[in-house]
Amino acid sequence: MKTTVRKLADCIGVTTETIRHYREIGLLHPEIQENGYYDYTVGDALTTLLTRELRSYELPLESICELYAKSDVADYNKLLEEREATLLKDLEMIHLELSRMRETRVYASCGMRIMNQVEEFDGPPTWAVSMLNSNRGFHPCGAMERWVEHLPFTYVSATIPLDELNKKSGAEPYDVQVGCGALIHYVEKFQLPLDEFSFYQPGGHFIRTCVATRDILSLSPNDLSPLLEYAKAHSYVFASCTGGRLLFIENAETDPLYYILIWVRVDPA
Asked: Cα(168)–Cα(264) distance, rounded to whole angstroms?
């Protein structure tokens, strides 16, 4: 039983271009007539349909060609097992990304809720790496590439070292460190590299606020006055560098306004 490429395409629900492509790469082997047209068989129909099924699992055509040419059912099952393992890994990452998106929404809603106010919370350790600071400008950071690759599990960070927190006052700008940060379990999961421009913030008890600024590198004690006044009123001392997360940039193209969630670990005085 033989048919033309057009009739075969109409019968099995694929395009003639697909059938011709499968023939050109050696998946189909129709007989060629004297007039130059090809005769397609039931076998060609079945091969095309099974190939479409395998492609639906995102198996590459090259692997499918090799499977038909050199393999048996056992090899086919092994290939499906490997693809299943890949899909399970992808599914794990999708669930992780969904969880991270929910975390990010929590941070964003927190920022709106505590704008220029302060709240206390208990939190895990974080790490941050810096590629830019107020005093030296941009500086090479070998770790940054890996950290950027793992956004959104990392975030755009702004860190103020502990000694800066304790010695600066008024409108004197802090030496703000800009880069990427992450909760420690993401640092460990993705084995993110650390270098001499890394800042560690231990877990513990924290206070936090959200500020809006036109210039991150010009953050000063005046900008952090809600945190400083709260710490003084509650007899807290700062116990680490700050953590800081860029939440959003408003009017990014014209007059940028940066919203930053800032937190710092505190101990009783």
From this structure: 16
Q: Which fold has domain 114-268?
A: Multidrug-efflux Transporter 1 Regulator Bmrr; Chain A (3.20.80)
The answer to whether the peptide bond before residue 152 is cis (omega within 30 degrees of 0) is: yes
Percent of the chain exceeding pLDDT 70 equals 100
Entry field: residues in the chain: 269
CB 242 within 8 A of CB 264: yes
Question: Domain map of the chain by residue range?
Answer: 2-70, 114-268
Q: Are 2-70 and 114-268 the same fold in CATH?
A: no
pLDDT in tens, 168-216: 999 999 999 999 999 999 999 999 999 999 999 999 999 999 999 999 9
The strand ranges marked E within 109-235 are: 119-123, 126-133, 137-138, 155-159, 177-183, 198-201, 204-213
CATH of domain 2-70: 1.10.1660.10
Question: Cβ atoms within 10 A of the Cβ of 55, count?
Answer: 13
Q: What is the pTM of this model?
A: 0.80
